[in-house]
């Protein structure tokens, strides 16, 4: 697999390479858990300045912990609660510059300062969310949001 860290392109080009790596990694595999596990590992390798990356899967009105990289996490999050539950209920990406200012934030890791959550939607149905935390405030920007949304749209093809 191509090592993105050694590539000298700009951030957008690096994200495009990660999406290509995702496709190569998941090609031919139909197991959703295996694909989510590899997707979280790929993002963990690619993204710097993060302390948690993984998935929560929609089940009976709540999100249930799925494959991830990082410290142990909250297992169940009701829709509408915290950043993940709010992104799930609104079915829109949430980029939070300072999680301590987000109403109802659920602190699974005290080191987390900022967060981005991208809903995973297939055929109009919420499958879950991609959740990424950082120990830095203001870690995620528009470029991250745009390309993580592309990443999840690509991932959906393999779920």
UniProtKB/TrEMBL annotation:
Signal peptide: none annotated. One of its GO terms (cellular component) is cytosol. One of its GO terms (molecular function) is L-methionine-(R)-S-oxide reductase activity. Keywords: Kinase, Transferase. Pfam families: GAF. Residues 51-153 form the GAF domain. The keyword Metal-binding does not apply. SUPFAM superfamilies: GAF domain-like. It comes from the Bacteria. Belongs to the free Met sulfoxide reductase family. This is Histidine kinase.
């Amino acid at each position: 697999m191509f090592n993105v860290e050694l590539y000298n392109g700009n951030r957008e080009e690096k994200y495009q390479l990660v999406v290509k790596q995702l496709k190569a990694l998941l090609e031919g595999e139909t197991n959703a858990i295996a694909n989510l596990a590899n997707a979280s590992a790929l993002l963990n390798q690619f993204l710097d300045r993060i302390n948690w990356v993984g998935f929560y899967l929609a089940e009976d009105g709540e999100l249930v912990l799925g494959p991830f990289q990082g410290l142990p996490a909250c297992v169940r999050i009701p829709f509408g609660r915290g950043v993940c539950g709010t992104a799930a209920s609104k079915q829109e990406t949430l980029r939070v510059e300072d999680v301590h200012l987000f109403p109802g934030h659920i602190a699974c890791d005290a080191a987390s300062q900022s967060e981005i959550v991208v809903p995973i939607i297939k055929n109009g149905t919420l499958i879950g969310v991609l959740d990424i935390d950082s120990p830095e405030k203001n870690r995620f920007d528009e470029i991250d949001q745009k390309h993580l949304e592309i990443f999840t749209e690509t991932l959906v093809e393999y779920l």
